[in-house]
C-alpha cells in the first residue's frame, strides 16, 4: 500500500480523504492557496505546500505545480477528490508521465466521459438507453437552433464538459433559445474552457437516480446500490438519499447492471457514478457519468458499511475489489443535506462571511458531519460555498428523516447566511416524507419550503431582550458587597422602579421595548403588550418562561447583532443605535450588487432606454452566473463598473433615471 499520497484539493473532501488515509497508516501531503493558509485540511495533513494565490486558476488548477510538489514531497500518488483536476485528462496523463499514481480512472476513461456528447455515443453503442436529443459536433448556432426545434420543448441545454449545474439552461420555447444558448456557452467557457453544448428533451417529472459503480484493474465491476438526488436547485443537488425510495428490485438490478456495463465499455477503474433520469412510467435514461468520487458518496457508505475512499486507495494500489456483487448488501436508509453559504430567499444567491459562531450536531452511528471549516473561518468568493455535508442513517426512511430534522435543529451558524432553515423545512415537509420526488420538487412546493417563522414576532423580541440582558449581566463588573443594592444586577433605582428602554431592529423595522427588571424576572413591554419573563442563560443556551410558556433556544450576540436559533428556524435582530440607520443601498432606480463577485458582462450603455426586468448586468460568484435586472422602466444614467472587475455586495452597479408614470406624452 502507498506510504504517502498528495491530496490535490481543499475543504471537506480533502479532510475526508485524510481521515481514511491516516486510518490506513498513509501519510498525507496537502496543498493550499493564499486563502487557505490556515485551513482545516492544511492542519490535518502531515505536511503542506503553498501553490499560489486564492483564485483556483492560479492554485488548485495548476496541475504542473501540484505534480512538482508531489515529487518534491516524495508522494507516490495523487488523490484529486472532486472538482478542480479530478476529471482533467491532461492532469491524469501528466501524473502517469511522472510516475505518480492518479487515484482515479485512466485518462482514456475520463476523456470518453468528459464530453457528454461523446459519452452518449459510447452509451448508445453499449445499449444503454438515452434521452432523445442532439449531441453532435456541429456547434453552429443555426444547427443547434434547428436541432432544438426538432427535439421539441421544453429542452435542456447542457455543457458537454460540464458538471455541477454550470453551463446548463432549461429552455421553454424557441423565443428563449438564443439568449439561453449565449448564457450557457459563456458560463461553460468560463467554468470548463469549452463552450460546446448538447441538447436533451427535458422530462417534466423525472427523478435523478444514480448508481455508484466500482471497477478494479482486472476489469471486474460492481455496483453499490443507488442514490436518489432529485431534490435540486439550479440543477445542483441539495439533498440526497440511499436507497432511492419506490424503486422495484427489478429496476434497481437493471439500472445497476446498465451502470456496470457503461463503466466497462470505457475500461473504467476506480469509483464512478452513472447518472440516470428515471421517468414516472418506470423507464430510465443515461444522463452522464461522473469519473470521480461524488459529493454524496457518504449516503452509499452509510447503507453499505463500506469506506469508498479506502476502496479507491486499494484499487489504485492494484488490489482486487473488496467485495463481489453478491456480497454487496445494504441496510437501513441514509440522507445527506448540503449545508451551503447562500440565501434561499434570494434565489439561493451565494453568500460570503465569517463563521463567527458554529455549532454542529453530535456525531454518532446515526449522525455524521463532513466538513472542512471550523468556527472563525471565512467563506470567500473564490470557492464553492458548501460549508459541510450532514449525513444521517437509521433503520427506515421515516426514522432517517426524523434524524435529519433533529440534526438540522442542532446545526447552528451565525455570521453568514445559510440554507439550514430551508433544508429543515424541506426534510420535514409532507411531500418529501411521502417521497413525492422529482427534479422540480423545490419549484413545486415553494410555499412549504419557505414557511413563516415559527416564533411569533413579539415572543421573539421578548426572548431577544432576555438574551441581551442576561449576556450583559454575565460580563458586568459588580460590587463585592453582597448587601449593597448597587451590586444587584436589576437596574436598581432609589425609591423608584426603572423600566429600561431597548430598541431592536428587525429588517427595516425598529421595535421599542421597555423592560422592568426585578431580582428573578422581567416584565417586557412590547407594542402595547406586557410579558412576564423568567430566563436563565448558560453560555449560548437560554431557558425562558414567557407568561407561563417554557421555551428553550440558543443564541449568539456579536457586535450588537443577535441571532436566535429555535427548532431549525432563526430570528435575527440588531441592537439599534442612531448611527445604525441603514443607508438606502437601493435608491430609486438604482441597481446594486446582490453579492460579492465579478462582472461578466454589462449589457447596456449610458443613455439606453431599459424596461423593468431587462437583464443589464451579469455577475459571476462561486462559478455561477447571475443576471441582474432593471428594477423599473427608465434610462441608464450611469455605469460604475466594467467587465472583469470585482464588486462587493451592495455596490451600485448602474444608475437608472426612472420614467415618471405621471408624465403625459406631448401631442
TrEMBL record:
Cofactor: biotin
Biotin carboxylation domain: residues covered: 1-447
Superkingdom as given in the UniProt entry: Bacteria
Database matches in SMART domains: Biotin_carb_C, GARS_A
The entry's keywords: ATP-binding, Biotin, Ligase, Nucleotide-binding
Lipoyl-binding domain ranges (all copies): 580-657
PANTHER family tied to this protein: CARBOXYLASE:PYRUVATE/ACETYL-COA/PROPIONYL-COA CARBOXYLASE, METHYLCROTONOYL-COA CARBOXYLASE SUBUNIT ALPHA, MITOCHONDRIAL-RELATED
Entry protein name: Acetyl/propionyl/methylcrotonyl-CoA carboxylase subunit alpha
Organism: Marinobacter aromaticivorans
Amino acid at each position: 500500500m502507498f506510504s504517502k499520497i498528495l491530496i490535490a484539493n481543499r475543504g471537506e473532501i480533502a479532510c475526508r480523504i485524510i481521515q481514511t488515509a491516516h486510518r490506513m497508516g498513509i501519510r498525507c501531503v496537502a496543498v493550499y492557496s493564499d486563502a487557505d493558509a490556515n485551513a482545516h485540511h492544511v492542519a490535518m495533513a502531515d505536511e503542506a505546500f503553498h501553490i499560489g494565490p486564492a483564485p483556483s486558476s492560479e492554485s488548485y488548477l495548476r496541475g504542473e505545480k501540484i505534480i512538482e510538489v508531489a515529487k518534491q514531497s516524495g508522494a507516490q500518488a495523487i488523490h484529486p477528490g472532486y472538482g478542480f483536476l479530478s476529471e482533467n485528462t491532461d492532469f491524469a496523463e501528466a501524473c502517469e508521465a511522472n510516475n505518480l499514481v492518479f487515484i482515479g480512472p485512466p485518462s482514456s476513461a475520463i476523456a470518453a466521459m468528459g464530453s457528454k456528447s461523446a459519452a452518449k455515443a459510447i452509451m448508445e453503442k453499449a445499449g444503454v438507453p438515452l434521452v432523445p436529443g442532439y449531441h453532435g459536433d456541429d456547434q453552429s448556432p443555426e444547427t443547434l437552433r434547428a436541432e432544438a426545434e426538432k427535439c421539441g420543448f421544453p429542452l435542456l441545454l447542457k455543457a458537454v464538459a460540464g458538471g455541477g449545474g454550470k453551463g446548463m439552461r432549461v429552455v421553454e420555447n424557441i423565443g428563449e433559445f438564443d439568449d439561453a444558448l449565449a448564457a450557457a456557452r459563456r458560463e461553460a467557457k468560463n467554468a470548463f474552457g469549452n463552450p460546446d453544448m448538447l441538447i436533451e428533451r427535458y422530462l417534466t417529472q423525472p427523478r435523478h437516480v444514480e448508481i455508484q459503480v466500482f471497477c478494479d484493474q482486472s476489469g471486474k465491476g460492481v455496483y453499490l446500490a443507488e442514490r436518489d438526488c432529485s431534490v435540486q436547485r439550479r440543477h445542483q443537488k441539495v439533498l440526497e438519499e440511499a436507497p432511492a425510495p419506490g424503486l422495484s428490485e427489478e429496476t434497481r438490478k437493471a439500472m445497476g447492471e446498465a451502470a456496470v456495463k457503461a463503466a466497462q465499455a470505457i475500461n473504467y477503474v476506480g469509483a464512478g457514478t452513472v447518472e440516470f433520469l428515471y421517468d414516472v412510467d418506470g423507464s430510465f435514461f443515461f444522463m452522464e457519468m461522473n469519473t470521480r468520487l461524488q459529493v454524496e458518496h457518504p449516503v452509499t457508505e452509510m447503507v453499505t458499511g463500506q469506506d469508498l475512499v479506502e476502496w479507491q486507495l486499494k484499487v489504485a494500489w492494484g488490489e482486487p475489489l473488496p467485495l463481489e456483487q453478491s456480497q454487496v448488501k445494504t441496510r437501513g436508509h441514509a440522507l445527506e443535506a448540503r449545508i451551503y453559504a447562500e440565501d434561499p430567499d434570494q434565489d439561493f444567491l451565494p453568500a460570503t462571511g465569517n463563521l463567527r459562531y458554529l455549532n454542529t450536531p453530535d456525531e454518532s452511528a446515526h449522525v455524521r458531519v463532513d466538513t472542512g471549516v471550523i468556527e472563525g473561518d471565512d467563506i470567500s468568493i473564490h470557492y464553492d460555498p458548501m460549508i459541510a455535508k450532514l449525513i444521517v442513517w437509521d433503520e427506515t426512511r421515516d426514522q432517517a428523516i426524523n434524524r435529519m430534522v433533529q440534526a438540522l435543529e442542532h446545526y447552528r451558524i451565525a455570521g453568514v447566511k445559510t440554507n439550514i432553515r430551508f433544508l429543515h423545512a424541506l426534510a420535514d415537509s409532507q411531500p418529501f416524507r411521502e417521497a413525492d420526488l422529482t427534479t422540480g420538487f423545490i419549484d413545486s412546493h415553494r410555499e412549504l419550503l419557505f414557511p413563516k417563522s415559527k416564533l411569533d414576532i413579539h415572543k421573539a423580541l421578548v426572548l431577544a431582550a432576555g438574551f441581551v440582558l442576561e449576556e450583559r449581566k454575565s460580563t458586568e463588573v459588580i460590587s463585592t458587597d453582597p448587601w449593597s443594592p448597587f451590586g444587584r444586577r436589576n437596574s436598581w433605582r432609589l425609591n423608584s422602579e426603572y423600566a429600561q428602554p431597548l430598541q431592536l431592529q428587525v429588517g427595516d423595522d425598529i421595535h421599542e421595548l421597555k423592560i422592568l427588571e426585578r431580582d428573578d424576572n422581567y416584565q417586557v413591554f412590547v407594542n402595547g403588550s406586557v410579558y412576564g419573563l423568567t430566563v436563565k442563560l448558560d453560555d449560548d443556551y437560554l431557558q425562558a418562561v414567557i407568561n407561563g410558556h417554557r421555551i428553550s433556544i440558543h443564541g449568539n450576540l456579536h457586535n450588537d447583532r443577535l441571532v436566535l436559533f429555535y427548532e431549525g428556524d432563526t430570528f435575527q435582530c440588531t441592537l439599534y443605535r442612531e448611527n445604525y440607520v441603514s443607508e438606502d443601498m437601493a435608491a430609486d432606480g438604482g441597481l446594486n450588487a446582490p453579492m460579492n463577485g465579478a462582472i461578466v458582462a454589462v449589457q447596456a450603455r449610458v443613455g439606453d432606454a431599459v424596461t423593468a426586468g431587462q437583464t443589464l448586468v451579469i455577475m459571476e460568484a462561486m462559478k455561477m452566473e447571475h443576471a441582474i435586472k432593471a428594477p423599473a422602466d427608465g434610462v441608464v444614467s450611469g455605469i460604475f463598473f466594467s467587465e472583469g472587475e470585482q464588486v462587493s455586495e451592495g455596490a451600485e452597479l448602474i444608475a437608472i433615471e426612472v420614467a415618471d408614470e405621471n408624465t403625459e406624452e406631448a401631442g
